[in-house]
Structures are given as structure tokens and as C-alpha cells.
């Protein structure tokens, strides 16, 4: 697995982020699996590893808002960077190219130190 390099932005998150669990540059994996209902995490990212590019802020949970609930407590939103090699495997046309996706904290888990290459 090859994780992308990131240069964290030189400014604080544009919105309050509360107690963010991850810092820019941290290696994370998107939780695999399924859940019933309205989900805001693309299937092709589930189970994949990336790096936190930035903290976007804390917002109401859109998975709850979709059902006309209040979305509380707020969830921290991150921009996570993935390599094409991580997403599409050895057949990736440009393996070093990257994709950034904004993913809420409850979909992310820390990677073990030995997992990140």
C-alpha cells in the first residue's frame, strides 16, 4: 500500500472542529461495511486507506438529517486523500494520482503504524 503525501494547509479549519480525533497527515482507513439507510460515504472508498489532508470543521450528521432528525451531536468532517493505486489496485492507469474525498469522522479508523507505507 502506498499512501499519498500531504502538506497540511497553513490555516486553521474554516469552521469550528471541536475535538478532532485525527490530525492532518494521519493515516486512516475508511470503515468497511454496510449500514441501512442514507449513507454519505462512497462504496468504492470503504476499506481503503488514505491520509487526512485537512480538517474541514464539525457539522450536523447528514445521515441523520436525511431522516429529518437534528443531526446532533456534530461530527468532524475531514478531507482524506487516496492514491489511485489504493483505490483501483495495480491496474490503475496513473497509480500516483490522487483523489480527495470529504468523510465524516465516524467512518474513519486509525491505521496501525506498521500498516502505512
UniProtKB/TrEMBL annotation:
Stored SUPFAM superfamilies: Electron transport accessory proteins
Cross-referenced InterPro entries: CN_hydtase_beta_dom_C (IPR024690), Elect_transpt_acc-like_dom_sf (IPR008990)
Annotated protein name in UniProt: Nitrile hydratase beta subunit domain-containing protein
Domain Nitrile hydratase beta subunit: 19-110
Organism (species): Paralimibaculum aggregatum
Family annotation (Gene3D superfamilies): 2.30.30.50
